[in-house]
Design a protein that fits this description.
homodimer, two-stranded antiparallel sheet, 11 strands, 3 domains
Chain lengths: 394, 394
């Protein structure tokens, strides 16, 4: 059907279906397809569907529900849908204040399980807020769970959001999302391929998913069981060579198993924050996420040999500079100079038994290594007074 | 030091250090290194360390603590350590009943945070059990948290496990792991580069990590903060071109942030089960993990057009075959034949208003789509009695 409309235009396509006679050159070209369709059967199906349709009533119903019809070439048409080729929708019904094309210029699809866990809903809402606050529009399917949470996050951030429905834009499915869809109508836009009044079917959900993927620069799967519609959207994103991210979760949660499979098969990039996703879909260099760094601790500011000397200083008792030098694997001069610096900086102190860590430094070392470290060497030898080597050793 | 021993043997290396005179040709070759070491300073350090050492006392202490010394060439020497090149340990002290080389032939390093969450400890123990039950030895560092849980899992599965210590094998660090280390001594083996009596230092932990990575065919990081010793082990595994896996966790947990960074940078493979890890390190084709599949539901056994017909059958009321055919996008013949088969299989039934889903099938469809689906089309047209097309439409 997509190819028929592409080649002959929508009006001529309706005429040939009504006449039950496809152009012979179209039939010839279709026979050359890799998997040629059964055109006679298709034509019968199209004929029956056309017979069952009532375009005038659709237009009337659209007017009643404040829905506008957008077709390719309109200024609101999102041209990225052209990448769907023959699978490009013939038209879209839209309801809401936001401009569809403009909203989707910088957009990310946030998708996932209907039966999301509280973790999944939390993450989806955080992504909804975070993406919106950075100027990225959230596109999703308006379903329970991840979809709904992502839309709500976007609305909370005061941004438009795009709901792609598998039913008419005047149908509220799921019905408990009535308030959500009303808010989207005020602040964003609800769109659908289906005319007003059409109810969702399983097939319509699957067909709808390609639009979610095609409208967005990338798709992030927040939670998905191994058998999830979100994985269908993910696969559309890959087919369209859009970016695909997956949010990891506990391996004990079946609701993250689909995400983990995408990661394991290296189909998706691991995404742990809205910034990660923006880096993925953003313009190179323009939208780089700041590299996540571990918190800096004072020890980081020490040079390598001073660090080794610090690590060789015992917690309790004390050690002489020579034994500290040996334990640290540095020369005595280096050890002496490092100990002086460390003492001045408050890391170490001199006791009657030699050098030891100062109390607060002990606590700090404990925090990093989860336990105190014992003095590495005792008693202390001095290189100047090296004892004779045991002659039987060699 | 590694290159000195490699080229001249351990005994000659001791002699030249004691004489404080390196062979001139060695000095010349070292000067050609990319980053030539300060050999004079090194020699002084080695001299001081040699002076502070007491090999005879070490051997005696080893005997007292039932530790054996293993050197390259011994039958128990794990030859995979040769890949460390000049960083290969000069010798290993071992305590325990298990043969080190044999235990490590098929081994996996399970590493992670000391401050593991209960999730991390649970996963580590599961991996310890699962890997052991499949004949893979668990190698780890004997630390609090992930390491300890992995060792305990292996012991619970009745398998040997290898603890690589950063202190002498007679030192119990952390001290609360006394019972664990005693059990490993009975069933596995504790090893260390350090002679008996040596206490751990930060540097020794870092140096120890290369042994954990080098002994194993692969390393899996269970939990790791952004600043974690486990990431050091992971980087050794990559340097040695061993396999690296990372277990995902909630993005809200800082203890999984290190794992997620490894995944995001595609340094590690996403690992969600011991089987995943075995597939990674195992022999191609021999150790493949069974593909994780979603549970099969009866619908999967239907062919494509029958599925579409089933999805087009309404939940309530009823619909005639023609409207079902239109909604499903199939021909009337196909719909009629599919409806017959679906009725025989108990999926659909005929009511006074036409075909509808049987009650239990409704429940099943609800479970998958989280909501009931409305009848897709009503009223029902018949292709045989097509109404005239609205002429103003074209």
């Amino acid at each position: 059907m997509g190819r028929l409309v592409d080649q002959y235009g929508a009006q001529q396509a309706v005429r040939v279906i009504r006449a039950r006679a496809l152009p012979p050159e179209f039939t010839a070209r279709e026979a050359e397809q890799e998997r040629p369709p059964d055109l006679a059967a298709r034509l019968n199906t199209w004929y029956a569907r056309l017979a069952a349709s009532n375009p005038a009533a659709d237009v009337e119903a659209g007017k009643r529900s404040a829905a506008r019809l957008i077709i390719p070439g309109d200024s609101e048409w999102p041209t990225q849908l052209d990448q769907l080729g023959a699978g490009r929708p013939l038209a879209l019904w839209a309801h809401g204040t936001a401009d569809l094309r403009f909203s989707c210029l910088k957009s990310v699809a946030v998708v996932g399980a209907r039966a999301a866990t509280s973790y999944g809903s939390h993450v989806a809402a955080e992504f909804g807020v975070g993406l919106s606050e950075s100027g990225w529009t959230v596109v999703s399917g308006g379903a329970f769970g991840v979809d709904g949470a992502a839309h709500k996050g976007a609305l909370a951030a005061g941004a438009p959001t795009v709901v792609v429905l598998a039913c008419g834009v005047d149908i509220c499915y799921p019905s408990s999302h009535e308030a959500l869809f009303a808010a989207v109508g005020q602040q964003g836009v609800l769109i659908s391929e289906c005319p007003p009044g059409v109810h969702p079917t399983r097939a319509r959900f699957l067909i709808r998913n390609r639009l979610i993927a095609a409208l967005s620069r990338g798709t992030v799967v927040v939670e998905a069981a191994l058998r999830s519609g979100a994985l269908n959207t993910a696969s559309h994103a890959l087919t369209l060579t859009r970016h695909l991210g997956a949010v990891p979760g506990p391996i004990t949660s079946s609701m993250s198993a689909g995400c983990h499979r995408l990661l394991r098969e290296r189909k998706a990039v691991c995404v742990t924050s809205p910034e990660d996703m923006i880096e993925l879909v953003g313009v190179l260099g323009d939208d780089l996420t700041p590299q996540v760094r571990a918190p800096a601790v004072p020890r980081d500011r020490l040079n390598e040999s001073t660090k080794r000397v610090l690590d060789a200083v015992p917690t309790r008792g004390g050690a002489g500079p020579a034994s500290i030098a040996v334990a640290a694997g540095v020369g005595l001069d280096t050890a002496l100079s490092a100990l002086g610096g460390l003492a001045a900086a408050g890391y170490v102190e001199r006791s009657t038994k030699g050098w030891r860590l100062r109390k607060q430094q002990t606590a700090y070392r404990k925090a990093l290594d989860s336990a105190t470290l014992e003095p590495p060497l005792a008693p202390e030898p001095d290189p100047a007074e090296v004892p004779p080597f045991p002659e039987d050793f060699l």
